[in-house]
Write a structure and sequence with these properties.
The protein has 308 residues and is α/β, with parallel strands linked by helices. It has 11 helices and 7 strands. Helices cover 44% and strands 16% of the residues. The protein has a 7-stranded mixed sheet, with helices on both faces. The two termini are 36 Å apart. Bound molecules: S-adenosylmethionine (SAM).
Length: 308
């Protein structure tokens, strides 16, 4: 947990700065002429640009606010993702929409050779800072040829790219994870399709994201929390209420755990499971690409296309 009150207070923008940011947000809204409820949500062609703008704005305080809004619970949920992904030393793992890199780093600490991919430079810069002190386990095999060849050899590397059009050949990874990413894609279906494509036969796919509780009363309380309290935290800690009001907006356009499970089955994944956390407030979707599990040295003879 980060976190003494004094540390948190240091991150709270001054009232004057918050005022300036609110004005900037209103101007942004006026410029887009958007009639949608949230300036960072666009159902059409501008979706990716708006999501980029959102994460560029919140990147410096992303980790802090994650801890605050989930009371640190996101760390436990991410631990569950790692348990389900079952990384083994030497396996090749891909963490999509890696953000500041906590899942990627956790996979690498288990001895996997990990690529974290994200399209936002500021989030990736934070991931690289966080990973700077990381040292691969002794005896970790050399990096995968599926990784971009220009990159220096390491058991953990970060690349910039679009999760909907991955710069890797088919069947490159033993496991593919995505934390709070699928919901942010212009097409979550395309993202899931790419996860399935780059997974090797026998590979594991794990998706963590906000969920939709089945219980109507709990769902109303939770949506009220996302609608009322979370934007206040966004405003307080990073000067942007809209950036955090976006969570509910994006969730309302996302099929959540049951829809993702149905799509996983539609892709022919095996052992599809849904793990509902806190009564469905958060959810982990799990599936396995059918087919034999190959040895770590087989099936990787193509070089990656570098993201443009
Ligand atoms: C909510 S953050 C999640 C970060 C991290 N995985 C975590 O669990 O805390 C979502 C991330 O998805 C990235 N993202 C959104 N759309 C993307 C896309 N099309 N391709 C790659 N990354 C994307 C954003 O830049 C951001 O870093």
């Amino acid at each position: 947990m980060p976190g003494t009150a004094a540390q948190a207070a240091k991150h709270i923008p001054t009232a004057r700065r918050r005022g300036r940011i609110l004005l900037a947000e209103s101007a942004e809204l006026a410029q887009t002429g958007a009639s949608v409820a949230n300036i960072y949500y666009d159902p059409g062609a501008a979706r990716a640009a708006k999501v980029q703008a959102l994460f560029s704005r919140i990147a410096p305080r992303y980790d802090l606010i994650n801890d605050v809004q989930s009371l640190g619970l996101h760390r436990l949920w991410k631990r569950r993702v790692i348990q389900l992904a079952r990384p083994r030393p030497g396996e090749h793992a891909l963490d999509l929409c890696c953000g500041t890199g906590d899942l990627a780093l956790a996979l690498a600490r288990r001895g996997a050779q990990v690529i974290g991919l994200d399209f936002n430079e500021r989030m990736l810069a934070a991931a690289k800072r966080r990973a700077a002190a990381f040292r691969p386990r002794a005896g970790t095999p050399p990096p995968s040829p599926a990784a971009p060849s220009e990159a220096p050899p390491a058991a953990l590397r970060f690349v910039r790219g679009d999760a909907q059009c991955l710069p890797f050949p088919d069947a490159s990874f033993d496991l593919v994870t995505i934390g709070y990413g699928l919901r942010n894609l212009a097409s979550w279906e395309a993202g899931l399709g790419e996860m399935q494509r780059v997974a090797r036969p026998g590979g594991r796919l794990v998706v963590l994201d906000f969920g939709r509780p089945d219980n109507a009363l709990w769902r109303r309380l939770y949506f009220a929390y996302l609608r009322r309290l979370v934007p206040c935290l966004g405003w307080l800690f990073c000067g942007s209420a809209s950036a955090y009001a976006y969570i509910l907006e994006s969730l309302q356009h996302y099929p959540a755990q049951h829809g993702v499970a149905a799509a996983m089955r539609g892709h022919g994944l095996a052992n599809v499971r849904v793990l509902s956390l806190l009564g469905g407030v958060m959810a982990i979707n799990y599936g396995e690409k059918p087919g034999p599990s190959l040895s770590p040295c087989q099936g990787r003879n193509g070089l990656a296309r570098m993201p443009g």
